[in-house]
Specification:
This protein has 410 residues and is of the alpha/beta class. Helix content is 35%, strand content 26%. It binds adenosine-5'-diphosphate, aspartic acid (ASP) and magnesium ion.
């Protein structure tokens, strides 16, 4: 008999009927003799609804209070699921992040898990109960409620699986597993039986919302077997593996990821001298704003332009900071755009194949899609393009890299 941590996402608990269906499924697992720890998200749309209320009251909501507010979403679903289980004769207990003691740092809205106390959970499991933990939330050293960033329930699931040394962490969602690209954008996207941690990490960091990046990092670090499957449909889903050994001939590109959540900022006419990047980016990172892609143009007459991307939610804040920096540096101008998107091709096979980036650039050029920024690593190439071309770019690249023909469980 195994110990499984099962995480159910927002759409999977999006109505009372769905919560009852999940309860039925969990009850069946219990009847087979497995120990089950469940992590749930808030009902779909609820976190957005709460955040909208916050911004109506306060333009830049206080992060501490934001966490107090958004953590309520998951508190509703844990209690309802626990009731549904009891109604079906299955003993269960629900806990908030703070009750379990999911200890995090104090970076509100983006907190990181430092430690999880498993005593309470283990006592319940020994007593034959299903344990239900609120995803996405924790508590800091001083007792403040914290949250782990959007999609953070995945991380709660994997972190609990690591702390409990579970046999598997099962992420149940609204698609059958991890596909070659978002199946909602490209119909011909193929379900992957397996994907390496390395590739999954790139996919998550490049915008595939199917798993939160921290969850993949945790799973890789603590070697947690991680599987993504559909909440209500049969199937083995996708297993995230250390190495994709079974497949002899790896496809060069295994997936296409994209991200519409970024915005671009450019500071024009700054001196091209040592320390300039630090002068521009340090105040941005001091404000806890993450910078993604960075581009510095070649200088003309000792002056240069500097472009970087941030999350769209941080755009106004970053722009305000950049305005102050521009005054200090006597910069000519500042430009910004929210109408951008990032498209990335990912594959460990890129290490041993040349010419992949140029195939990508040619395919985009053939569709008259202009590339605004480029960044590469050993196993990915990302480009920033105008948002209106995003779907065309993803479909084009999916077909150019023959993803229809890669491994499939179907
Ligand atoms: P949950 O609420 O269950 O956490 P999410 O919406 O966070 O679900 O993640 C699942 C969604 O991820 C899918 O509905 C799908 O649109 C999107 N997605 C993006 N890229 C992929 C991909 N490569 N494979 C599968 N799903 C993907
Ligand atoms: N409810 C949170 C969100 O919408 C966490 C999650 O669903 O994983 O981001
Ligand atoms: Mg999610």
């Amino acid at each position: 008999m195994g110990l499984y941590v099962q995480k159910y996402g927002g759409t999977s608990v999006g109505s009372l009927e769905r919560i009852q269906s999940i309860a039925h499924k969990i009850t069946q697992y219990r009847q087979q003799g497995h120990d089950i720890v469940v992590v749930v998200s808030a009902m779909s749309g609820e976190t957005n609804r709460l955040m909208q209320m916050a911004t109506t009251i306060q333009k830049y909501p206080d992060p501490r209070e934001m966490d107090v507010l958004v953590a309520t979403g998951e508190q509703v679903t844990i209690a309802l699921l626990s009731m549904a289980l009891k109604e079906q004769g299955c003993e269960a207990r629900s806990y908030t992040g703070s009750q379990v003691k999911i200890l995090t740092n104090s970076v509100h809205t983006k907190a990181r898990i430092k430690h999880i106390d498993v005593n309470l959970i283990q006592t319940d499991l020994s007593a034959g109960r299903v344990v239900i933990v609120a995803g996405f939330q924790g508590v800091d050293e001083t007792g403040n409620i914290t949250t782990l960033g959007r999609g953070g329930s995945d991380t709660t699931g994997v972190a609990l699986a690591a702390a409990l040394k579970a046999d598997e962490c099962q992420i149940y969602t609204d698609v059958n597993g991890v596909y070659t690209t978002d199946p909602r954008v490209v119909e011909s996207a193929r379900l992957l039986q397996t994907i390496t941690f390395e590739e999954m990490l790139e996919m998550a960091s490049l915008g595939s919302k199917v798993l939160q990046i921290r969850a993949v990092e945790f799973a890789g670090k603590y070697k947690v077997p991680l599987r993504v499957s559909h909440s209500f449909e049969e199937g083995l889903g996708t297993l995230i593996t250390i190495e994709n050994q079974e497949i002899m001939e790896q496809p060069v590109i295994s997936s296409i990821a994209f991200n519409r959540d970024e915005a671009k900022l450019t500071i024009i006419g700054v001196p091209d001298i040592p320390g300039i990047a630090s002068k521009i980016l340090s105040p941005i990172s001091d404000a806890n704003i993450e910078v993604d892609m960075i581009l510095q143009n070649i200088s003309a007459e000792g002056m240069t332009d500097f472009t970087f991307t941030v999350h769209r939610n941080d755009f106004e804040h970053a722009k305000n900071i950049l305005q102050q920096i521009a005054r200090q540096l006597n910069a000519t101008d500042i430009q910004g755009s929210k109408n951008i998107a990032k498209v990335s091709i990912i594959g460990v096979g890129m290490r041993s194949h040349a010419g992949i980036a140029s195939t990508m650039f040619t395919a985009l050029a053939d569709e008259s899609i202009n590339i605004q920024m480029i960044s590469t690593s050993e196993i990915k190439v990302s480009v920033v393009i105008a948002e209106k071309y995003l779907e065309l770019a993803v479909r084009t690249l999916h077909s150019v890299f023959n993803l229809d023909q890669c491994q499939s469980v179907e």
